[in-house]
Write a structure and sequence with these properties.
heterodimer, A: alpha/beta, four-stranded antiparallel beta sheet, B: mainly alpha, MetI-like fold, 83% helix
Chain lengths: 246, 315
Amino acid sequence: MAEIRIKNLHKEFGVGADKVVALEDVNLEITGHSFVSIVGPSGCGKSTLLNILTGIETPTNGTVEITSDGHVAAPGYVFQAARLLPWRTVTDNLMFVQDDRSDDTKERCQRYLEMVQLGDKGDKFPGELSGGMQQRVGIARAFSIEPDVLFMDEPFSHLDAITARALRRELHHMWDETKKMVVFVTHDVGEAVELSNRILVFAKGGRLEDDIQIDLPFPRDPADDEVAVAKAHVLRKFEELDLLAS
Amino acid sequence: MTVTDTRPSAGTGSQPVPSPAHRLIGLPAKIAKSPNFARILFPIALFAVWELSLIAVEEIWPFAVDVLPTPSEVGGFMWDEFITDTLARKNLYETFFISLRRLLSGFLIAMVLGTALGLAMGLSRATNAFCHDWTMAILAMPALAWALFNSIIFGFDDRGPILTVILAGIPFVIVNVREGVRNTPRELFDMARSFKVPQSKVIRHVLVPSLMPFMFAAARYCFSIGWKGLVIAEVFGGQDGAGWTIKFWYDAHRAHGVVGYAAFFVIFAILFERLVFEPISRRAFRWRPQISTEVVEEAFGEHHEHYGEEETARH
């Protein structure tokens, strides 16, 4: 089971007068089969936190541990843009991130493609697919390496509302089926409420302001009263924290 | 009454019904407008203008026929060459084999050296600063100057023409590969790093394919510029080859030989483009379904026009 432990995490950029605090004394623990959304206004440090978690940036102070049953956890990524190799077919894009080319691996890739409804599109090039399909391939790619933790950086923000909604359903389904931990960065509170069982609210200056549990049953329909109430609750928190103004 | 009922009557009301005679006139008009017809019309028009202007010139200056070749003379000459019935020392196939061997040697050396230099210049600012002016100087130098210079140094063997091909082609390879390196897709490298894909795999699946369009442009330009450079080099510093043979017919005062051989030269370049570059390009870029190869070529053309301008500006 995957675990993320963040202790006294502090991150600064620049020096002297140009110094900007991106994350301020963040303490956090995420365990097991969680779907955690990180929400907050632009410049609240949510991307910085994800970059530190994924190892692209190093913290100024504090520690980050990502483990799975005592080992270093294997991460998977879904990016804002699908980031597929345009010159490789869908199947080859999945194979690109695999350690081997065995039949088992090929079968596994095919299984995840089927999970995102693209089982028959393996021979297509990304340029032949719609934006939503490309992002699906990106999701299948992340799941296909069977990671312990999945990091997603606003994966649906470039898609139209209807496609994004369909993909959120698929993502929830895959999360539920694979029992992976997902850390999901978004600026869309509705999306966070629909998908997560835990929402971390960050404010400007990189402070973790609130840690909200959403204990509603899945699947969640945004039109449901309870989901709407939960969304309103999170938005009220935003208001209290004066985050909406920014 | 439905909408579909009213439409034909409105149509016939406003436009006269085309008579059979009209249709007959309409058909040639349709053919005349088709691109294939235009394509076929061009050589026909060319040959007609050629033949007619010769008749016209003959009226004014009867001796011109000795100097100016008619299409039939050129055609006859080309046919004789084609069946290896020639007065030249070597027949068409031997000649083109010799030239092609030189062209390919020079081309391959230019591609390898140019790619290495282009990579170094794309990756390192210092290397770029060091090599940039030299590259531009080589680019600005006319192939004629290289041909003369190399024939002075090497005399009449293969080295002069091959070096001319290298020097004429290499700047295009360097500049293209450098631009390719500068345009590598950073976000794909980051993606590969996040997924911990090994370096060798990243080079094979990300770096090399992203350089392909630039390599391809480089190869095409290197080939066509090298081909032209080679012919000039063979005129001055060769004892055989296509360039030398054009010169041979020139020295023999056979205008139809000069024109006919130049036509072979053009045909060869076109065949190579059609039979080698186009199929490879179609295969290499099949992942771009929305862009036809023609558009890709145009894009390359634009890319290069600008170097061409630079070149002419320096002349």
